[in-house]
Specification:
two-stranded antiparallel ribbon; two-stranded antiparallel sheet; alpha+beta
Length: about 140
């Protein structure tokens, strides 16, 4: 693994966690959305990550000798959790029996995901900062 591969790995992690935060924000913004363009309530979205090779050496021998993996967002999928139904006959989207179908977004799960994404992002920032400091110390030693 080359010295600059650390920057690529951390950058890929930061980009993936930023996407995760965007999806969490979307889920939180739609926690009460009972009607969408597709019809029905908002469906929670989840981010699926995938390990990806971030090394510059794409030759066969380079791949055999080392594999430098970062992370990438493979897909954003809709959750298959069931919707919630609550009795609220005065709601404009209530059915004939007075029940409203609410999104399958759990506020506590979203807040936990947000905290985890924030911590992962911060960890990648710390790796970048530490690596930069090590490079600077190495340059001072060479002087």
């Amino acid at each position: 693994m080359g010295a600059f591969d650390i920057f690529k790995i951390s950058a890929s992690g930061m980009k993936a966690q930023r996407t995760r935060m965007d999806i969490v924000a979307s889920n939180l913004a739609n926690v009460e959305t009972t009607s969408t363009e597709e019809g029905g309530p908002y469906r929670k979205k989840d981010v699926v990550f995938k390990a990806v090779d971030v090394s510059d050496d794409k030759t066969f021998s380079g791949t055999l000798s080392r594999k430098v993996e970062g992370v990438n967002v493979e897909t954003v999928k809709e959750s298959d959790k069931p919707f919630q139904t609550v009795y609220n006959p005065s709601h404009p989207d209530a059915n004939s029996e007075g029940y409203v179908t609410l999104p399958n977004v759990n506020l506590m799960e979203e807040m936990t995901d947000m905290t985890a994404a924030t911590r992962a992002y911060e960890a990648n920032v710390n790796v970048l900062s530490t690596t930069k400091d090590m490079f600077l110390k190495t340059l001072e030693l060479i002087k």
